[in-house]
Design a protein that fits this description.
It contains 13 helices and 9 strands.
Length: 260
């Protein structure tokens, strides 16, 4: 059973597409309006709809029924039930491919990359992913240390990811940093870096897979300590200087694979 069948019930409320991420995706795709893009691991279709609003057509591929049923219909988005490793889309049927913060849920990333290359024509394959090794260590690591450490296991080094993509697609991969603004609308793991109070909300936590899938006692321990430190002023005394920062490099990267 796809994991989001069990943890994705509130996903559509807190994982809203951030327009700055959408801008970056459109710039990286470099496609004419009216082009067809596959969104692999589309979730509730938040970015599929946002890109469709920019004048593109989307094939949204998602295995989770819970996620798909939360999707808002859009005339330029067509839904398909399927996995990244076994796409229902025909060979060379789309102009480009995107996959937004989904690769860590794939059962076999190499097979998924081969499938994405199969369904794409000569347009870009764009991933948004995370590598905790390349970004700034966040205060979140101090409250959820085991979950932070798990990220090093779940997300391989970017150099390994790039090498795997290039060897399986004969494409050239360009890496672009995603600086996280302080007011992101897409509440993924590090999105609340300047808004620690958000992590006290159980509905927000349920839309972040790293927290939703972790052992309940570990999450509760971190949340309780965070709440105590926020109430006492300890958090602001130790980390409060980041509240004045407009953005931060937390290790999120776009990988854009293009035909040489």
């Amino acid at each position: 059973m796809p994991i989001y069948d069990s943890i994705g019930q509130s996903y559509s409320k807190f994982r809203l597409p951030d327009p700055r991420i959408v801008d970056s995706l459109v710039n990286l795709l470099q496609l004419e309006q009216g082009s067809l893009v596959a969104d692999i691991g589309a979730g509730t279709g938040n970015y599929s709809r946002a890109i469709a609003e920019r004048g593109y057509f989307l094939h949204a591929v998602e295995p989770s029924l819970v996620m798909r049923t939360q999707a808002t219909e859009h005339p330029q988005v067509q839904w398909f039930t399927g996995y990244a490793e076994d796409s229902p889309l025909p060979t060379s049927s789309v102009d480009a491919v995107i996959s937004i913060l989904a690769t860590h849920h794939f059962s076999n990333f190499e097979k998924a990359v081969i499938e994405m290359n199969r369904i794409a024509k000569t347009g870009a394959i764009v991933f948004l992913t995370f590598d905790p090794r390349v970004g700034e260590r966040l205060w979140i690591a101090d409250y959820f240390p085991s979950i932070w450490e798990d990220a090093f296991r779940v997300f391989p080094p970017l150099s390994d990811v790039v090498a795997l993509i290039q060897s399986n697609t004969q494409r050239i991969v360009e890496i672009t940093s995603l600086m996280l603004p302080h007011d992101l609308t897409d509440m993924f793991f590090a999105a609340g870096w300047r808004r620690p109070e958000l992590y006290l909300n159980p509905d927000v936590r349920s839309s972040i897979s790293a927290l939703a899938l972790a052992e309940v006692s570990i999450v509760e321990k971190g949340v309780n300590r965070l709440e105590e430190d926020l109430n006492s002023g300890c958090w602001d005394a130790k980390y409060g200087k980041i509240r004045s920062l407009p953005e931060i490099d937390a290790g999120y990267r776009f990988l854009c694979a293009r035909v040489a």
